[in-house]
Amino acid sequence: MSLLAPPRPARESVRRPRTALRGSLAVVVLLALLVLLAFASLMWGARDIAPADVWAALVSPVTGGNDHGVVRNERVPRTLIGLVAGAALGAAGALMQGVTRNPIADPGLLGLNSGASLAVIVAIAGFHVTSVDGYVWFAFLGAGVAALIVYGAASMGWEGVTPVKLALVGAAVTATATSLITVVLLMDRNTLREFRFWQVGSLANRSLDALTSVLPFVAVGLLVALAAGRVLNALALGDDVARGLGQDVTRGRLLVVLAVVLLCGSAVSLVGPIAFVGLVVPHVARAVVGPDYRWIVALSMLIGPLLLLAADVIGRLVVAGELEAGLVVAFVGAPVLLALVRGSRSVAA
């Protein structure tokens, strides 16, 4: 069965006694892999640091030690940001695919990435912001405004908010914001030079202050995402069936969209509009535990940081000057997406 095939009714997965066992085992394995990868992120880079030195830097740092300074001041913030942003992007992708019933949806579908990018352009060109930490609140605000516009426009009409209307309005907002961004970049080379470093997506040169600023929003978004699994299972059966099961479809969809805004807005403001994480990760989780969104969302929170941290570490190792994580994720995600599309065509045939 193709990963892009329409999901079977969520009740089938709930009835399977092995789903919980598979999900629990997957959580244990993924947590172990995350610990190993996080430690590798602290060890490897332009200069490799021995595991004993990394451990000493964490538990008993020496003031003035070069290796200890690199670990604590550069690699620890980078690793933590990768963990938080990856979890946020993975969960946001799972929520988007569930709330829109669209297997190729990602956080950019609501125009969040383009809204954040436009806000960063305004910060650079209008307020002369030049640091990544300064972009955080502009990007977060831009993502939130874009989501409000999309949801408000999609709620018009007698049907209210529907997956199709969300996708269409999101595409319109993305096209409009992209056009405005292009106009500004063509007119101002200084803005182009500053913007391109944020646009490519990276974990480098981010501080813990930026992380702590958005961490409360990520925490709330992840909690809402975990609680939304049952709602997404009902929405997967269709709005009419979900209402028949006692779900308030409008309120449930609004809560899910709010969680997406918190998660995607926080992640994009931290690391830039990194593509493919929110698109690919839910499909991997679905392949492990089936169509039950209670498990898909939980596993996506672990697979997302695995993918993002792995891309960051690979980027440090394959290129002497460092390849940005956003580019590495694109190299990995694009072939996976093509394979999913090809698989869906073969099933359709």
TrEMBL record:
Question: Could you name the domain of life of the organism this protein comes from?
Answer: Bacteria
Family label: Belongs to the binding-protein-dependent transport system permease family. FecCD subfamily.
One GO cellular component term: plasma membrane
Kindly give the CDD domains that the UniProt entry links to this protein: TM_ABC_iron-siderophores_like
One Gene Ontology biological process: siderophore-iron import into cell
**Which coarse location class describes where this protein primarily resides?**
membrane
Extract the coiled-coil ranges from the record: none
This chain's protein is named Iron complex transport system permease protein
**Which InterPro entries does the record associate with it?**
ABC_BtuC-like (IPR037294), ABC_transptr_permease_BtuC (IPR000522)
Q: GO terms for molecular function, please?
A: transmembrane transporter activity
Q: Which organism is it from?
A: Nocardioides szechwanensis
PANTHER family xrefs: FE(3+) DICITRATE TRANSPORT SYSTEM PERMEASE PROTEIN FECC-RELATED (PTHR30472:SF1), FERRIC ENTEROBACTIN TRANSPORT SYSTEM PERMEASE PROTEIN (PTHR30472)
Q: Where in the cell is it found?
A: Cell membrane
Query: Where are the membrane-spanning stretches?
Result: 80-96, 108-129, 135-154, 166-187, 214-233, 254-281, 293-311, 323-341
Task: Kindly state which keywords UniProt assigns to this record, in alphabetical order.
Answer: Cell membrane, Membrane, Transmembrane, Transmembrane helix, Transport
The membrane topology noted for this protein in its Swiss-Prot or TrEMBL record is:
Multi-pass membrane protein
